[in-house]
Write a structure and sequence with these properties.
There is one protein chain. The protein is 49% helix and 14% strand. By secondary structure, it is α/β, with parallel strands linked by helices. It has helices at 19-29, 47-57, 69-72, 76-88, 105-138, 163-188, 199-206, 239-254, 298-301, 313-326, 328-336, 346-359, 365-391, 393-403, 406-410, 414-424, and strands at residues 2-7, 33-37, 63-66, 92-95, 149-152, 155-158, 215-217, 227-229, 271-273, 280-285, 292-297, 311-312, 425-431, 434-440. It has 16 helices and 14 strands. A four-stranded parallel β-sheet has the order 2-1-3-4, sandwiched between helices.
Amino acid sequence: MKCGYARESTLKSEQNQALAWQIQRLQRYGCDRILTDRMSGASKQRPGYKELLALIEAGNVKEVVVCSLTRLGRSTRQMVDAIDLFAERKVKFTSLDGKIDIDTASGRANVQMQAVFAQLERELIQERINAGYDGIRANKMPIHAPFGYRIIDKRLEIDADVEVVARWLRQSVIAVGLIKTTQAINVEHKDLAKIPRSPGGIKTWLQCETIYGNLWYDRHNRRGATTIYYNNHPALFTQQERLEVEESLRFRQKHHGFKADPVRFPLTGLIYCAECGSSMSVSYKHDRANPTIYYRCYNGVRRSCSNRKYIRTENIQKAIIAALVSRAEAIAIRATQAEQKIAEKPELLELREQLFTLVGLPANSHIEAAIAGIQSDIAVIETAAIQETVTLQPSREKALKACSNPAFWREIRQEDKHTIYRLLVKKVLCQRGEIEAVDLWV
């Protein structure tokens, strides 16, 4: 058959031969089949080009037609190998922009010369593009604006029209995770341009240095180092907000059942199998509308752990409450901050450092007066700190009374359990439907 090949480069400055225009020319020439690619001519992994060579190897091609020799490729080695294959398989080669005869030595030499110039042209184009990027980097100008920003006078500025949505997006990832945030986006913001619409896209956006005020070049360059200019433009989120997102993503990645609603399932991520160490995920039984919620070993479900028994959420919560009541005093102390370390107060440390410096100097009346003044200030601060600790004592007694009462823990609002459990509970170990241990942070 007569097979045509058309290619459109990925280099924008080189796209003077549109793919549709090439296909029209090949159709008018009478090609039985046309293979296409949208890739650089130097790539060895062009699907259409590889299929063309496979058809030639199989003996199914009588003539190969291209609009110009540069559409066949931009690498001298690849083009020479292709022409040699054409000649070996007795395949006619036709370029619509110029007559090429590969049956003669001079014709093949002409092809090789044109291939060298095609590769040279590509490399010159790439050099010009790289020079342009170097100029952009030197002047700290943005190339693209991520969601939440727009480019004004070659500077990144926060887009006030979508700032509220961008902040909601971050908070939603922390609250319900990537999956449910993606679902909400495609329902509530399906017409909003540039907003990331997949879990991977949202995660990439949250990890982008640009939304934290840093200009980031070559962030997709896996081989070379990237370039970051810090504090280059207004930050959409603070570094503290960035740490909160990273912690949330790490927690959800580490624990199975990360898709679970933290309000409905506040224990998810805290329950572990005592046998294999895997976290236990949420499971339902009976009525889906009003289900009985269980936890089960993630590996046990897949038959890689012998711990396959379910354990009810109510039983786990009873064990947690019993453990919290047994540590009521430690929790009360932590809640009221009664164990203050007076010596670590920043103002005291600064005064003591000044005092140490003055004591080492030659004595005179001025230095002695300064030393006496600093010692007086230190005494005042220490006295105030001691009084502050004493005033916390009644609060600690109230906290101890509350923490010692199981009803206090049972009556905590469902919305608050997720946060409180993570502050106090390290992990709960379960095996064969029974609770083996409750490990607390206090």
